[in-house]
Specification:
The complex is a heterodimer of chains A (390) and B (433).
Chain A lengths: L5 H13 L4 H10 L3 E4 L6 H6 L3 E4 L23 H10 L8 E5 L3 H13 L4 E5 L7 H21 L7 H27 L6 H13 L2 H17 L9 E6 L8 H9 L2 E5 L19 H11 L16 H10 L3 E7 L3 H16 L4 E6 L7 H19 L1
Parallel strand pairs in A: 1-2, 1-3, 3-4, 5-6, 5-7, 7-8
Helix pairs in contact in A: 1-8, 6-11, 7-9, 8-9, 8-10, 10-14
Chain B lengths: L2 H11 L1 H22 L2 E4 L7 H6 L2 E4 L1 H10 L3 H10 L8 H11 L15 E6 L4 H12 L4 E5 L10 H23 L5 H23 L14 H9 L6 H20 L4 E2 L2 E2 L5 E6 L7 H9 L3 E6 L19 H11 L6 H14 L4 E7 L3 H4 L2 H12 L3 E6 L9 H26 L1
Helix pairs in contact in B: 2-10, 2-11, 4-6, 5-6, 8-13, 9-10, 9-11, 14-16
Classes of the chains: A alpha/beta (390), B alpha/beta (433).
The complex binds iron/sulfur cluster (2 copies).
């Protein structure tokens, strides 16, 4: 089997994704002596960490196979699952390899987790990364730039390299290269979803959260070469759907597989969103810090966690449906996720107005039973196929 | 008149009646707004900009207050049901759903009159992400501009210059111009300063009232009674003459209770002997507010300090609105509200309350609706227990959804908690002997 066999790459990615020891991170640390900095969903400026010689490590909670022993004692039953699995990983030693954690401003749960982290792991860097909700450069831009400078100083205090503009420019270039390949894989999935099964794409993107970006880029290249060459991947009669609402706590891999088995091609989604948070490359000229800030202000995905001004809710999703030629939308949010669930009715309205079929269900990252979802998704896919055939 | 009636009458003569009248007058002013032409802004309690609104003659409408009032009048169940029928998830904050259901049902306020549609949606984004979603939803329903004020969180437990500047710049460049446009008036800083000076005065008196609970017995209940005391200053009245007058009178009344060695007044009149002194974290339940209060009062438990009475402003740490720095002081106020503090700061504050108010322990009323308050409370409880050596208690309910108020369960848990305090006392006494 060649190294570019996409199945093998997906298997390796799944191993990395399921590895709660974070072996690749530990090895990177041994090799480089750099700081490994964890971050929660959705977005942190990985370019900045990279430029200071740090390894950004995306922590998206545990999956269906993480046993929660102490995490439940931290959270009431009516709070989503991701903070309890994350604290579990912190307490069971899995995250010992991290020198710090960043908690971006996306909701009150992650916000408050930043405080728990401070109290539980006082020796580690634990930083709430406030991101602006006001997008004028002289307002939100100034504030955000200052947040990033503070973060850079804090990293430096903890032993990272000082932030140099040219290093940042180079890191922007490295991440642009990565982003271009990420876009390519997603575009290929839109065109030929049978070539890029979502369960494979998902584990690949999860592996990309913990691997050094250069390795991830190489892996994406191999994967693309591999799937393009793979003649055995043939189209099937599946309904093209767009999956939305899963931007933070991630559904278990079993759920993604279930949707595919139930007759859906997921042609777009908001899973592991950081790889696609910025819609375009960051310009490599000019002041790199300004560019990084500006990209966040002007070029971020529309997310339920981001204030959408005049544009009206749901328009972006309808455009994405059109762009990905999806035939239906599945609203798939974690239970108790305020940002996703408060957003949903507004977006549903827009989707209905556009005449797009939709269905909705909720999950927790540790769900193990998918029978109900399988039936619901199967019926949904069938109804789409039925109507598209008319 | 028997004793009970006497005390009830005394209660009626008190500040409470004055406060009720003030709030009722505000609601009727709102109801008349379409005829009088007065403009109104919908906004939130935490991080409210009342003085600024008042300086433009804009009337605040506070959806959280409408929601809690709906709950107290037994309307929230139907409102929530309506919102859920319209597709809102059972999992999300019930304040939002209660408000949406009320809007759907004609937007009838607590006084039975229709509330005006907003002329401005002032989204002061302090201490809670749900606010943003809430106003995104309202924006789709109303034809009103939104002025967003993003208030950074005190992630590291402090207000930095950059944070302050961000808020002040937004006030100056976005919020004030939006208010000018809606009101048709120019920004009048002198008027704002006058409002702020009055705020500080009322804040002094409010703090004196809240701190009166250091006395034994405490003359007030700083949670159940506390929500009445904070009413005017957390809503439409901060900065007004009425608020100054109200807090002066309230303070005098409480000082008199201290002089007479009296405990708090409860819905059933004077409370019996004070047996337990409790600090409470988290908002109250509004659907069974009196029943909930009674569960404490009947056991002789008085709440001597609470975090909920700090959601619309923390003043007992020395903060006062400062008229000499009008926009900076508003920025600091917004950033200083309780749910905008990080968890370690919240723990510090609760520990301080247990110690300074010589409380028997911390009780958390964890609210299903509210991630801002609730996420992390179990750990906060353990931290406070460890640091004070005092027992902690934990109960669960909801703000305005009666489905989540289980009276029997809560009563049981409270009784066990009070027993735990007794045991702890017995243990201490035995060790001391
Ligand atoms: S799943 Fe939703 S509520 Fe939970 S932490 Fe993530 S964004 Fe917040
Ligand atoms: S989540 Fe909490 S703070 Fe936010 S609106 Fe609901 S009750 Fe208020």
């Amino acid at each position: 089997m060649s190294a570019a066999d996409p199945k093998t790459l997906a298997e390796r990615s799944e191993e990395i994704y399921r590895d709660y020891e974070f072996t690749t991170v530990r090895r990177w640390k041994e090799r480089t002596g750099g700081l490994a900095i964890g971050y929660m969903p959705i977005y942190v400026p990985r370019e900045l960490l990279h430029a200071q010689g740090c390894l950004p490590v995306g922590i998206l909670g545990g999956g269906d196979d993480l046993e929660i022993i102490r995490g439940d004692a931290f959270y009431q039953s009516y709070i989503c699952h991701i903070p309890r699995s994350t604290i579990e990983l912190g307490l069971n030693g899995s995250l010992d390899c991290l020198d710090g954690m960043l908690f971006p401003a996306i909701c009150d749960v992650i916000r408050n987790l930043s405080g728990i982290w401070k109290l539980k792991f006082p020796d580690k860097l634990s930083r709430y990364l406030d991101v602006p909700q006001v997008f004028e450069p002289e307002l939100g831009g100034m504030f955000y730039r200052h947040e990033l400078e503070e973060l850079a100083s804090e990293l430096e205090r903890r032993g990272a390299k000082p932030l140099e503009p040219e290093a940042l420019r180079e890191s922007i270039r490295v991440f642009n290269e990565n982003r271009a390949l990420v876009r390519e894989v997603y575009d290929l999935r839109i065109r030929e979803p049978w070539k890029v099964p979502s369960a494979e794409l998902y584990v690949l993107m999860r592996a990309g959260l913990v691997l050094p970006v250069e390795e991830f880029t190489a892996m994406l290249r191999e994967y693309l070469d591999g799937v393009r060459a793979d003649e055995d991947r043939k189209p099937m009669d599946q309904a093209r759907i767009l999956l939305t609402g899963s931007f933070c706590e991630q559904p278990p891999l079993g759920l993604i597989k279930t949707l595919e088995r139930a007759g859906c091609y997921i042609v777009d989604d908001d899973l592991v969103q950081i790889h696609r948070w910025l819609l375009h490359d960051i310009p490599e000229d000019g002041d790199p810090m300004d560019r990084l800030v500006q990209a966040f202000l002007d070029d971020s995905m529309e997310s339920p966690t981001r204030y959408i001004d005049e544009r009206g809710k749901g328009k972006e999703l309808v455009e994405r449906v059109e762009g990905s030629r999806a035939e239906g939308v599945i609203f798939c949010a974690p239970s108790f996720c305020d940002p996703a669930l408060l957003d949903q009715p507004m977006v549903v309205k827009a989707v209905e107005k556009a005449g797009i079929p939709w269905t909705a269900f909720k999950y927790a990252e540790n769900n193990g039973q998918f029978q109900v979802i399988r039936e619901q998704a199967g019926t949904f896919a069938d109804s789409i196929k039925l109507w598209s055939g008319v | 008149m028997n004793k009970k009636e006497e005390s009830k009458a005394a209660q009626k003569d008190s500040s409470q009646i004055r406060q009720k009248n003030m709030i009722a007058a505000h609601y009727s002013r709102l109801a008349r707004a379409p005829e009088t032409g007065e403009k109104c802004a919908y906004t939130f309690v935490p991080g409210n900009l009342t003085e600024l609104l008042r300086s433009f003659d804009l009337l605040p409408v506070l959806p959280e207050i409408n929601a809690l009032q709906s709950a107290m009048r037994g309307k929230s169940r139907d409102y929530i049901r309506l919102a859920e029928k319209a597709g809102h998830s059972e999992d999300v904050c019930t304040y939002v759903k209660c408000d949406l259901g009320m809007m759907e049902s004609g937007n009838i306020g607590p006084t039975g009159e229709r509330l005006p549609d907003p002329d401005l949606l002032l989204l002061s984004y302090t201490g809670c992400f749900t606010f943003m979603k809430w106003f995104e939803i309202l924006r789709e329903e109303y034809d009103a501009p939104v002025a967003m004020l993003h208030v950074p969180y005190q992630g590291d437990g402090e207000i930095t210059d950059s944070m302050r500047k961000y808020v002040v710049d937004q006030l100056r460049n976005k919020v004030i111009p939006a208010m000018e446009k809606v009101s048709g008036r120019a920004y009048d800083e002198d008027r704002l300063k006058e409002e702020l000076a009055r705020s500080a005065k009322a804040e002094d008196d409010l703090v004196a009232v809240l701190e009166s609970a250091r006395n034994k017995p405490s003359p007030i209940d700083a949670y159940f009674g506390g929500v009445y005391y904070i009413g005017p200053i957390f809503t439409a009245f901060r900065g007004s003459e009425e608020a100054v007058g109200y807090y002066e009178a309230l303070r005098a009344e409480i000082e008199e209770r201290v002089r007479l060695g009296k405990g708090p007044i409860t819905p059933d009149g004077e409370m019996g002997p004070e047996k337990y002194r409790i600090v409470v974290e988290g908002p109250p339940n509004w659907t069974s507010f009196r029943e909930f209060w009674r569960m404490f009062a009947e056991e002789g438990a008085v709440v001597v300090a609470s975090s909920y009475t700090k959601v619309g402003g923390v003043y007992d740490n020395g903060f006062r609105h400062d008229p000499s720095r009008p926009l900076e002081t508003l920025a600091e106020y917004c950033m200083g509200c309780y749910t905008n503090l990080n968890l370690p700061s919240r723990v510090d504050m609760l520990v301080r309350y247990v110690e300074e108010y010589e409380a028997d322990g911390l009780l958390i009323n964890s609210i299903k609706s509210c991630n801002s308050f609730s996420a992390g409370q179990l750990m906060m409880l353990r931290e406070v227990e460890n640091r004070t050596g005092k027992p902690g208690g934990f109960i669960e309910s909801d703000l305005v959804d009666p489905r989540y108020f289980s009276a029997a369960n809560i009563k049981n848990r409270l009784e066990s908690y009070f027993q735990m305090i007794e045991q702890k006392r017995a243990g201490v006494a035995a060790r001391g002997a």
